[in-house]
Amino acid sequence: MKIGEASRVSGVSARSLRHYEDEGLIVPGRFDNGFRDYCQSTIDRVLVIRSLLESGLPVRLIRDVLPQLTGGHDAGADAVCGEFLHEVESYRDRLAARIAHLSEQQAALDAYLRQARRTGS
């Protein structure tokens, strides 16, 4: 399928598809006229990429681990998977710290609002 249809099917913009290709995350086929040709396995890979990017993982790590997540395996799979798991855990920990900080801020604002409503009534 051409890039427009691939964009529609995957929910990823044509610009993002081109970016994924530039980053080496996908390698679409080419028609004789040079247009990109996206097969279903490439669309499936795009969906994995999108999910990983939305979770905040860096492109560098996604590029390294993507072969293991989409069915291809190479000699460094164990090391990559170990690094990937460490990176995911680290990201999760940073996210948990941010959530805790935001929860504290929310609690402080709630306390302020309760106090303001008591004194303002």
TrEMBL record:
InterPro entries membership: DNA-bd_dom_put_sf, MerR-type_HTH_dom, MerR_fam
Q: Which Pfam families match?
A: MerR_1
Question: Is this entry keyworded Ubl conjugation?
Answer: no
PANTHER family in alphabetical order: MERR FAMILY REGULATORY PROTEIN, REDOX-CYCLING DRUG-SENSING TRANSCRIPTIONAL ACTIVATOR SOXR
Asked whether the keyword DNA-binding is assigned, the reply is yes
Protein name per Swiss-Prot or TrEMBL: MerR family transcriptional regulator
Name the source's superkingdom: Bacteria
- Give the molecular function GO annotations: DNA binding; DNA-binding transcription factor activity
Q: HTH merR-type domain location, by residue?
A: 1-68
Q: Which UniProt keywords apply?
A: DNA-binding
